[in-house]
Amino acid sequence: MSRRTPFDVAVVGAGVVGASAALAGARMGLRVAMIEARAPTPWRADAPDLRVFALAQDGIDLLAGLGAWDTIAAHAQPYRTMRVWDAAGGGALCFDAQRYGRAALGWIAEQGLLADRLWAAMQQAGVTLHCPRRVVAVEDQASARGDGEGDDRETVTLRLDDHSALRARLLIAADGADSQLRTLARIEVKRHDYGQRGLVAFVQCERPHADTAWQRFLPTGPVAFLPFRDGRCSIVWTLPDAEAVRLLAVDDETFCGELTRAFDATLGEVVAVSARAAFPLRRQLAERFVSGRIVLCGDAAHAVHPLAGQGLNVGLRDVIALRSLLQDAFARGTDIGSPSRLARWQRQRRSESAAAAWTFDGINRLFSNDAPLPTLARGHLLGLAGRIPGLDALLWKRAAGV
Ligand SMILES: Cc1cc2nc3c(=O)[nH]c(=O)nc-3n(C[C@H](O)[C@H](O)[C@H](O)COP(=O)(O)OP(=O)(O)OC[C@H]3O[C@@H](n4cnc5c(N)ncnc54)[C@H](O)[C@@H]3O)c2cc1C
Asked: Is the pTM for the entire model greater than 0.90?
């Protein structure tokens, strides 16, 4: 098999990041293979999954450029305002799309919708799909000195769990935070466990969400209410591990009561809640994003605290940068996996991801804290930010990547 014409790009993991990367390659006319462990569940509008994302503008522009956004937008919820405030220290920030001459600050969509639409787009664009399949071994001929010859030296060979194999000039590992490919490529990862979980659910409130993303900081962690298309809110409630475990187990009435108090009844009483789930929160950064012809993208490379709703957006920025690299190499007819190109991509993406991870880390430390000094400091910070003209627009532009 390894004698067959190699793929230009092989992607492992069809989450939003991997699927976007595969589609970016295919739309450029590259031969792309996708290896995904789990067949996607067909999306249903009336049964949204609990993993919901706030998508920033540059990620939306990427999906639009790949021809996938229109079918997502039809079921996504725009948010036009964002309110962020601190329970203990006072001070608040408000972001308003209208003030920035925009129709929306961003869009809310669930993982299942994005995955379903991107999967269909990959099929339509001619991506070769291997699913359900796992990679069992990776051989990077460039780093296996003396092994392989000619064309072989410029490819990576992937061996799959059905005993098949395929070769590619570039391998994109987008197989999530517990990336198996990262381990196979022997890339170390620095990890910090926050001892917190993100509890997610859909809730119905007495008052409408008003197309607004709300976030209230509490000493135990922030609670966010994101507007959803069916009138409910998708919540992300950051809690210490033990509290999250307790709140997963209490009955619906107790849960709604505690959530109403945590959110200060901002939208009135929380009157109903869906099934709940909680994800452990960690900061994680791979020591390298590139090894030979293997690149790590999305959560495989970096995981950040979800308090700013930026994890997926940072991953999509990896794809945006990778797409320009591929376009440039394709236009010049040069090697898409050339070490100097990949090294440039790595320098840019690793420093940006590290900056994002440490920024959210700092915000989490400052806000998830009821000591008097941090409480005073954040009250001043939010108050000051709210009073400096134009600062909200600047902050939003940075978060939205525009
Ligand atoms: C509570 C919470 C709230 C969040 N809210 C937001 C938000 O509002 N906005 C935002 O931008 N981000 C948010 N995030 C972050 C976001 O969830 C992640 O950053 C994003 O899902 C990562 O996408 P990914 O494609 O890199 O990885 P994943 O979504 O993890 O996809 C990995 C894919 O690889 C496949 N796979 C895994 N192993 C293998 C293997 N060995 N072989 C083949 N395939 C494999 C999996 O089946 C999966 O399809 C949040 C995170 C949490 C925990």
From this structure: yes
